[in-house]
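Below: protein 1.
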Amino acid sequence: MSSIKSQSVTRALAELTVDRAHTFPTEVLALARDCLIDGFGNMLAGSAQPVGAQVREFARACGGVPESPVLGSSLRTSGPIAAFCHGTFHRALDFDNCWLPLDHPVAASHAALLSLAMASGRAVPGRELLEALVVGMETQARLRIASDLATHKAGAKGRGIFGTLAATAACCRLLGLSAQQTEMAFGISAGRAGGVDNSGTMSNPADSGLAARNGIESAMLARAGFTARAGIIEAASGFLQYLGDDADLESIVARFARPWRLAELGVAFKKYPCQYPTHWGVDAVLAALGGRVLPPDEIESLELAITVTPGHSSFNERSLDAVQPNSGLAGKFNVAYTAVVALLHGTVRIEDFSDEAVRSADIASALGKTRISLLPAITRFEDMRAQARITLRNGVILSGSMSRPHGIWGDPLTADELAAKFRDCASPALAPDEAEALRARLLTIGQDADVRSLAPLLVPQRSSA
């Protein structure tokens, strides 16, 4: 176990969270803005999914002070309930960005900040929102990096664990809490952190919704004087049980903002609305196709060899079976299904993950011709790779491989590609002109005097209740 003495890590992290002396480089704020825009797109798309309708009905049943709009609808509710909706929307498609260690760093903090800002009762400058998002993401990164991966080995999901404290940090900063209040907020939220593997179900994205809600509530309670255990992060019976006994606690503080994780690594913006490791198989198939469009009856077989992601509980041998998924959500986590979609359609789209789509006769036929195998084991996610071999009925063999999908850190999506993704995601909830108006405002959000003025742009004219 780390030698850090009681209370020092949690208090030091609290002080770093609210420190107004931080420098936020232009490139870090620009990337945070892009994360925000991508996140708004994901939330709009998620709001139109079945899980979006479910959480909207839940929010309506909860009632609450109508202070925060629920994205993509005319519904208004309390900040915490709106945060639950927005966090769930954000991850509904598994289209949101990620980084290393493999995690989703934006959803919980973004959802919490949006809902808190709308319900704040004061002007919230866009710059403050961006800085709070960076701090939330940094908190999630440093906690996740410090962990010994015990949580993922045990099947727990990091976004419900680390994302909860990240959203708490982001909200504490936006509310202007003191370091002492922020330490209490960490103690409150640590008692709410958690998450197990619910991949392929509605409960999977709800982890981020709960993390966002818990982040707002923990910060609000701490502001009101609610108490919790000090030093919760390093406490053996506290948050350390999630970090693991071999956690590098010193690094949480020593590496915070030195540099910012966004500058150190960047993020991967997803091209396809499915679990990130499946993108290697998809792109290997597309590389083999080389732009060809193959009629299904010309395909004899598809062989895909892929590495299994180390330490990732939901991407393992059970996700490699070439069987028809039982739902569209389950299809997002199925290597064979996503590869077959790429084979038949030449891409992977949002509409490929409806329950109807996974039951397609062409899909069933192609899955019957597909074989998935494992490449030699790897120890680092960065070493993932996939190899595809497509055999046609005329004997022609098409081969392709992938080791670094476009969109990954170091090879980001272009501005035009990100814009196209936003439009695609926004289209189920907003008319094209509404989506463009929102995106135009978000591009300059850092100069916005009050982000609450975005509220009318979040509600479509053809609003769904």
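Below: protein 2.
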Amino acid sequence: MKLSQLVSEYIAFKHALGVRFQTEARILKAFSRAMGDVESIEVEPSAVHAFLAGKGVVTGFWYEKFGVLARFYRFLMIRNYVDSIPLLKTMPKRPEPMKPYIYTLEELRRLLAATDRLQSPWSPLRAHTFHTLILTLYSTGLRIGEALSLTLADV
């Protein structure tokens, strides 16, 4: 049976169980596209490893992809669609969690002073926007993506 068909079947199975399964479905669809139009038994461990490696750096997302593929292949093994699981037997070491850097008050003052240089006739609010953004990030501990996606309803 084609890998793409089995991915669709597995996603439908998870949805039928009431599982949200959105991120996992995206990972499996990307995996299916990366492997091409192949039979499930033709998937090579080296191709799976290349898919997991992505850009080469082991991240938390690497482990998420690995877990999704491991559960998918267990599903296939139980139903006798595959004879073996083409995943690594040993896992790479998990990367150290990023240690946040906290700016000193002097560094914060210099950052805020630098926003004045962003003033532009084409974008008059640019300096004020960056000044406010830096203060918001510093005072709340939000990450940049969280701060940029705030809406008026959040305030």
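DSSP finds seven helices and no strands in the chain.
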